[in-house]
Write a structure and sequence with these properties.
By secondary structure, the chain is an alpha+beta fold. The chain has one helix at residues 52-64; strands at residues 12-13, 25-27, 35-39, 48-50. The chain is built from 1 helix and 4 strands; from the N terminus they run E-E-E-E-H. The longest helix is centred in the C-terminal third of the chain and has 13 residues, at 52-64. Residues 9-62 form the DUF397 domain.
């Protein structure tokens, strides 16, 4: 298993997220070969490490279901 340092990561939320928080995920885009994803309500909690192809498929499917 590979260790990733995300202490200074610039996380982002979807532009569809509002400032009230709610059920949001944040992603960090600038890590080659992996897409870290976390719960915005728990920024010090666990981070999912997702393959870029799986993340792209997920985002495409969510976009189609709107």
């Amino acid at each position: 298993m590979r260790e990733c340092k995300l202490n200074n990561a610039q996380w982002r939320k979807s532009s569809y997220s509002n400032e009230e928080g709610g059920s949001c995920v944040e992603v960090f885009d600038n890590l080659p070969g992996i897409v870290p994803v976390r719960d915005s309500k728990n920024p010090t909690g666990p981070v999912l490490m997702i393959a870029p192809s799986a993340w792209t498929t997920f985002v495409d499917e969510v976009g189609r279901r709107r």
